[in-house]
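Exercise 3.2. Students should predict the tertiary structure of the chain below and write it as structure tokens, then compare their answer with the key that follows.

Predict this chain's 3D structure.
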Amino acid sequence: MTAVTPRSNRRARRVTILIMAALLAGRGVAHAQNGSDQQQSTPSAAQSGNPSLDQVVVSAQTISGPQQAPSQGSLVATEPQSVISGDYVHNNDSPLANYTDIIGFTPSVWTVDPNGPGMMENLDTSIRGFQDGFFNVTFDGIPWGDSNDFTHHSTSYFVASNLGSVVVDRGPGTAATLGDATFGGTVAVQSADPYRESALTAYVADGSFNTLLAGARFDTGQIERWGGTSAYLDVQSFSTNGYLSYSGLQRSNAFLKVLQPVGDSTTITFATNLNKLQQHPPIGETPADIAAYGPAYSYNDNPDSQAYTGYNLDKITTDYEYLGVNTKFDGWTLNNKLYTYAYYHDGWNGDDVNGQLPNGTYPPGEIPNGTFEGPNDVPGERLYNNYRSVGDIFRIEHPLGPGVVQLGAWYDHQSNYRALFEEDFSDNDAYNPTGNGLTGTEPTALDSADRIMTDQLFTRQGYLQYVWQPFNAFSFSAGDRLVSFERLLDAPVNQNTLTPLYYDETWQRNLPSLDAHYLLSNNWSVYAQWAQGFLAPNLNVLYTTNPAESTVRPQSTTNWQAGSSWASDRMSVSADVYYINFNNEIGKTAVNGISVFYNLGGTIYRGVEYEGTFVLWRGLSLYTGGSVNAAHTKSDGTWVPDTPERTAAVGLQYQQGAIQASLLDHYIGFRYGNSEDTIPLGGYSTVNAAFNYDFAHTFGPLQDLKLNVTLQNLFNNNSIYFWNGTTVGNQNLFFTVPGRSGMVSLSARI
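Answer key:
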């Protein structure tokens, strides 16, 4: 177990990297989105407003409002969307930003990233109050996530420099929307395409909390002798100490994308992403710690403490690959993507980093068959979470009568090995017995296990949908999707019970949907939608001696929503209303950083959302957006946790000649941290700013030299903004808004 590089060793590296920027600089990936040599993304939504093969992907047909808009609605979508272009991402967000940071200012969205943007795995992202695990996340149209609770690891896969756009789709989608948890919406992350021209690129960034980033990208350009092949390889690495003490992160990433045209009607796409991460993930502070050590306290450098940074460490390696084929023939349009992705996680953590549990003792509820070697030995846990998914998505459509028939299928199999062992960190990670009844003469891994299990999730979905279009301006879609989830658990040591279990169960449901879309004029559309949603129970329902007796049932929703979008060169406005009837909602909290699930029962979600961009004068535009949200349980009317009563954003964008700048104030309203409405959290706002300058002239071999400055939390708000459960001693854990930070980036092209 090793900690992130100390601050004292960084200054020389920083100077070296900045010198390299002046000597080697190629064009930064961030700048490439504005370049004339960028290859445009293939459109994936029809002008009629009906989603096609890849459903939620930005195209020239999707938006037609002011180019300066941070986010805007879609004229063709049949449900509320916020479309965030690559231009905005690369000019205004920190170069470290995860997709969760990027979408944080859009209506009804709230994200929690207490170590600074991109400097730790996002603790919570909610859309309309639906937390991570209740909405879909896709990369290039492929759903991905953990099989145990359908959540996502925001730092473990894709980096901002490789993103072409991000779309927040706040609705269940149509029957053709594939994913595990679609009823809460879809965050569609789209990769950038290769440039048309060959280019060598380098970029560097330096920022707060001893943060350093360096990367390089090579584009082949279009290779005509190979039929127009184009590709790029982007490699980057960054390290940071983070805002919170001893909670640093180191990350290396490589991304390759290849586009191969075949004739005039077929494109083959191959992409692969490799990511290696080392982090010290914080779990929060008690009120006493905040008062004693300040809002930035997390871990320490004392090896005799359970809060020692070296004892609280994740080492994560991931990969993500797909091979896609898009073709048209005899009136048919076909899209197929074969993919695989993997997540390999080795982790360590002190049993209680907040000091409620003394050294030499076990957490409450554990009955050890042995004792520590010494009364002051440091108790800890070693975990393994290793999985791989393999799947395929097939879509096909064809005109039929006054419309289009669409059908498709998705298959995914994820196999996940999960293990957790009690260890003595003071004694070379010696095993500590847990009381699982398996102890022999000498403690072994099996004796010390809190869990040893292999769980498998088989996801099978198929859909049939007809898009009826009696005339060009109007369309009506009706479809049905059959979803099937099968969980299989093989556990020598099952979590909670510490006894063996082998179990297999399948849940399935039909999910019908209806939507209507009307284009009132070339720049004004209205839509309405009704759809049903479904989510299989989390893996935790099998953490019992007899899962067949569990009272936990699948979660289901019925969604209604309607809205309108209007766009011109000088203004874009979108607004919508929604009502969601949720049956059997499962909530989640944490104890010492470990997720604990509970049943909220029936809940009702409803709200109003809006966003708009208005060009004021000569490159200056105003963005406003926000929502009024409500989510209550049916039984007693208590507030659903982590649902802000409102969100709001207002900001200015300026782009004229070589200069681009922005200033954005984002507000999150009052909410409760827990389901009993006993932990109120007040509203807060943060202000972010960005400045970009494109140098018009070249510097020797350097072209398109660009300076980028981003500032987060400009006024250094340190309010308590998130409740992260409790310690093992039942003390509340909180996070504060991460303090002011900034990054300075340089990029250019040879």
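Discussion points: The domain at 7-749 is CATH 2.40.170.20 (Maltoporin; Chain A). The chain has one domain: 7-749.
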